Amino acid sequence: MKLGFVGLGIMGESMALNLVKKSNTEVYVFDFVKEKVQELVAEGAIAASSGKEVAENADIVFTSVPKATHVKAVHEEIYPVVKEGQIFVDMSTIAPKDSIALGEEMSKRRAYFLDSPVVKSKQAAIDGTLGIYVGGPKEQFEVIKPFLEMIGSAVVYMGTNGKGLVMKICHNMLVGEIQNGVNEMMVLANQNGINWEDFSAAIDIGGGKNFYLETKGKAIGTQDFTTAFSVENMYKDVNIAGEMISEQGLDLPGTKLVQAVYQSAMDKDFGGEDFSATFKIVSDQ
């Protein structure tokens, strides 16, 4: 069974590399940045000149691109060559409704589409320890699961198409809310003479212990916002959550606060920095 991978960005590059190293099959790769393609070729991948060429050669095609517009562009390109029974796995984070629409279009061609967004950061992508939420037809999930397990250490089937993305958006909004609470309390502690090291150590022994503080406490304390997952990407995700909340007539005040913090971060041109840089917004306020 031949594989394909379109999109070799911050996360996609490492995910594709894990497939190349572990799958024991041909892996066709494409990205507009030719250097990224050549790096994968050096590891054993096969270069493709387009997403269409990937789809022409692979039985299972993975995509990892920034936005829904990019996923749609890939699909528009490959529709003429889609084969019956082919499986397309999108690992991007887009709105669930967009994923459902893409799945419907693919089913018209007697092919299958699954959303498989990932959680955790670049290092987890390198290590092959990402968390992966999957939405789509169960039978095809069983087909792709062994390959997803080469990319992530935890693969969870959430239900029909779009459900993987619903879970991813809920996850990232929850991270945003936890993150904002940590940011605010670090500011309060600092204003009362407690440094970030002591703050982190003290939280670690109580009920407030959390993954965000464990992984970002030092970055905040030292003001080193080297990007593992950008403000811009998180901004996209929390706004997808905001749209879902609005469409369903819910009133969730904490989510509005998170959206406002990210809007301020984007307004101040922090988009390319790590999402922990939102600490600067809370601190300034």
UniProtKB/TrEMBL annotation:
Q: Where is the 3-hydroxyisobutyrate dehydrogenase-like NAD-binding domain?
A: 162-280
Q: Which PROSITE patterns match?
A: 3_HYDROXYISOBUT_DH
Any GO molecular function:
oxidoreductase activity, acting on the CH-OH group of donors, NAD or NADP as acceptor
Q: Where is the 6-phosphogluconate dehydrogenase NADP-binding domain?
A: 2-159
**Is Nucleotide-binding set as a keyword in this record?**
no
**Cited Gene3D superfamilies:** N-(1-d-carboxylethyl)-l-norvaline Dehydrogenase, domain 2, NAD(P)-binding Rossmann-like Domain
In the UniProt record, does the keyword Cell cycle occur? Answer: no
Q: Which residues form the active site?
A: K168
- UniProt keyword annotations, A-Z: NAD, Oxidoreductase
Question: What SUPFAM superfamilies is this protein classified in?
Answer: 6-phosphogluconate dehydrogenase C-terminal domain-like, NAD(P)-binding Rossmann-fold domains
Please provide the Gene Ontology terms (biological process) for this protein: organic acid catabolic process
| UniProt similarity note | Belongs to the HIBADH-related family.
Q: What is this protein called?
A: 2-hydroxy-3-oxopropionate reductase
- Native species: Enterococcus gilvus ATCC BAA-350
Task: Tell me the organism's taxonomic lineage.
Answer: Bacteria, Bacillati, Bacillota, Bacilli, Lactobacillales
